[in-house]
Amino acid sequence: MNAAHLMTASLDDTFSLSRLSADMLAKSAGMTPARRQQWHAGRALLAEALSVFCGCEVLPELQHSAQGKPYFSDTSLPHFSLSHSKNHLQLLLCQAGDAGGDVEQMRPRRRYLNVAREAFSETEFQWLTEQAEPQTAFWQLWCLREAWLKQQGGSVWQMDRIHLDPKNHQFTSQPSTDSRLWFVADGSEMRALALPAGVSELEEYAFNAVSGDFIPLASRPWSQFSSR
């Protein structure tokens, strides 16, 4: 059974940078303090996960695709996707193939309907306006798109490459992909994942900043979209 691993943490956690090389740390020297905190936290969390799940003493070398998506030079290591929103940080590891993840703090947006009208299809927009909580529906559609685009190495400017059918939990995309989209609303957070269709299990963990361990979490009621 193919499983993916999802790790959650907070940007306010104290992360050890001891598993990051001097060259990697030097890349953050010119960043703003806020961006440096995000950068350090994400890579430190990735390094801790690779230590626990793959036995890596230091974070392995990273390369970047033509679209800017990072990946490990060592192809035996898992694919990964990092995402953050406000203080929420998540890391997705997937051995089965390319993956993408997104987390969003479901904050109020006064102009969310205008954004939805521009970014979503007519079918999606109509579905959104029919929901009891349309802002939650907005974040669901937005988060699913972001996860798929991160899997593909795309950007927010390419949202028209994927069209969702929320009523039937299906989607179409350009290019067509053998993927499934997963999503769950967790309190004030919306989370979405884009995983290879063969992944049938998701193992979730919370990072313990004091011990450096990953604490297993109970399964949440994730819903899925299949490609058609």
Label this structure with key terms.
228 residues; alpha+beta; six-stranded mixed beta sheet; P-Pant_transferase_sf; transferase activity; transferase; 4-PPantetheinyl_Trfase_dom; 4'-phosphopantetheinyl transferase superfamily protein
Instruction: State the shape.
Output: globular
Kindly provide the radius of gyration, computed on alpha-carbon positions and rounded to a whole number of angstroms.
Answer: 18 Å
In CATH, the topology is named Ribosomal Protein L22, Chain A
> What structural class do the secondary elements suggest?
alpha+beta
The CATH homologous superfamily name equals 4'-phosphopantetheinyl transferase domain
* Helix and strand pattern: EHHEEEEEHHHEEEEEEE
Number of beta-strand segments: 13
Looking at the overall shape, the CATH architecture is: Alpha-Beta Complex
In order across it, which strands form the biggest sheet?
6-10-9-13-8-7
Fraction of residues in helix: 25-40%
Task: Report on the biggest sheet.
Answer: 6 strands, mixed
Query: Strand fraction band?
Result: 25-35%
Question: Would you tell me the overall average pLDDT?
Answer: 94
- Please give the count of helices: 5
Domain 4'-phosphopantetheinyl transferase: 100-167
Family: Belongs to the P-Pant transferase superfamily. Gsp/Sfp/HetI/AcpT family.
InterPro entries: 4-PPantetheinyl_Trfase_dom, P-Pant_transferase_sf
Keywords: Transferase
